[in-house]
């Protein structure tokens, strides 16, 4: 089955967009638009998903075939944008309001689909994303824990510290002492 719109798994940043665009161009396809999680091809060059899947897998991506998997990847992409919204908005929306606005679907529906396909809740996935962002900020050693907590919209440094330990199994100070702190890429979160 050939198609002009392909849904791609593990696209989490602008470099992923560039990499996927390059992979498709090298394979002889003409992408007209590449965004997080999607590749739109020129009408004259539809692709067979099973033909491009090996190329994508080799680079750490994959084609998503089912609707539930597609929606889950779209939610993951939206959550990346939500983290930026949290960081920059004066009065940030709640996660549920942000996602229901984005997808014009109930949060209950989005949550059920996400939990079923990702094997964890949207909330737990978002917490993991936040902790990875916190690890990044900690590794730069430019801000105090309180400053990071404020930037990431935690109620306090203690709340962040508790959640950090719960997710990583280590304290913030243990993480800071580690010469080579282990961070995960967003596509490894779930």
Tell me what you see in this structure.
58% of the residues lie in helices and 9% in strands. It is α+β, with helices and mostly antiparallel strands. It has 3 domains: 60 residues, 2-Layer Sandwich (Alpha-Beta Plaits); 54 residues, no CATH class; 63 residues, Arc Repressor Mutant, subunit A, CATH 1.10.10. The longest helix is centred in the middle third of the chain and has 22 residues. The chain is globular and about 55 Å long. It starts with a strand and ends in a 13-residue tail after the last helix.
Average pLDDT reading: 90
Share of β-strand residues: 5-15%
Main sheet: which strands, in order across? 2-3-1-4
Low-confidence stretches: none
Structural class: alpha+beta
CATH topology of the largest domain: Arc Repressor Mutant, subunit A
Q: What is the helix/strand order?
A: EHEEHEHHHHHHH
Q: Biggest β-sheet: count, sense, barrel?
A: 4 strands, antiparallel
Q: What radius of gyration results from the CA coordinates? A: 18 Å
Helix content: 55-70%
Domain count, please report it. 3
> Which overall shape is indicated by the principal axes computed on the Cα atoms?
globular
| CATH class category of the largest domain | Mainly Alpha
Give a topology summary.
Blueprint: E1 5-9, H1 14-26, E2 31-35, E3 38-41, H2 49-58, E4 62-64, H3 67-88, H4 95-103, H5 107-118, H6 122-140, H7 145-151, H8 157-168, H9 172-177
Antiparallel strand pairs: 1-3, 1-4, 2-3
